[in-house]
């Protein structure tokens, strides 16, 4: 998979993308992530990429020209399956969406900032808008990090145990069951006997029951079609 990210703050990604699962995917060359500083495509001498909104109002707006110039350059190199803008009013990101995007070959993410981007970017350059929640962040970099992480871990070969991702929360619209590890008894707090029984079918049944119970208690909205 090839991922391009357009941002005003490429250094933001140094930490998240140099650790854990994303780092492993990069080292295995299962994914390539390129960061592009939108300021490099500004045409004015001060390299500004924002301006006051037409009609007045508070805040600044990211200009269309440097974004379009950057995208044009990248489109000469490859065809994108999706060009994604991270916005608070986009489609709410969920596991099925992560599953779908993980099957794509080329993805481009645009990180907004300030009061957002010129609406013409959204009208003519973007194929999909994604939100990670009903709240506003300082910039799209945080949202891009979340989405990219969720996608990459699903790529075959990234996780040591590929079946692990299949049992994650939300894969089947259920929350994951409780998990335990050694010691089996700590301060009198014991691991459920069923998990140490060695009877895999009964263990699987128990885990499914626990998933249903937790989902009903904590996220009943996931079972609305049950």
Question: What does this entry look like structurally?
Answer:
The chain is an alpha/beta fold and 226 residues long. It folds into two domains: 2-152, Alpha/beta knot (3-Layer(aba) Sandwich), CATH 3.40.1280; 167-223, tRNA(m1g37)methyltransferase, domain 2 (Trp Operon Repressor, Chain A, Orthogonal Bundle), CATH 1.10.1270.20. Helix content is 31%, strand content 18%. It is built from seven helices and nine strands. The strands form three sheets. It has a five-stranded parallel β-sheet, sandwiched between helices. α1 links the parallel β1 and β2.
- The fraction of residues assigned to DSSP E strands is 15-25%
CATH architecture of the largest domain: 3-Layer(aba) Sandwich
How many domains? The number is 2
Number of helices: 7
Distance between the termini: 35 Å
Low-confidence segments: none
The first-level CATH class name of the largest domain: Alpha Beta
Oligomer: single chain
Q: SSE order in H/E notation? A: EHEEEHEHEHEHHEEH
Percent in helix = 25-40%
Main sheet: which strands, in order across? 2-1-6-5-7
Query: What is the SS-derived class?
Result: alpha/beta
And the CATH topology of the largest domain?
Answer: Alpha/beta knot
Rg over CA atoms:
22 Å
| Biggest pleated sheet | 5 strands, parallel
Large-scale geometry:
elongated
CATH superfamily descriptor of the largest domain: SPOUT methyltransferase, trefoil knot domain
How many β-strands, per DSSP?
9
Mean pLDDT equals 93
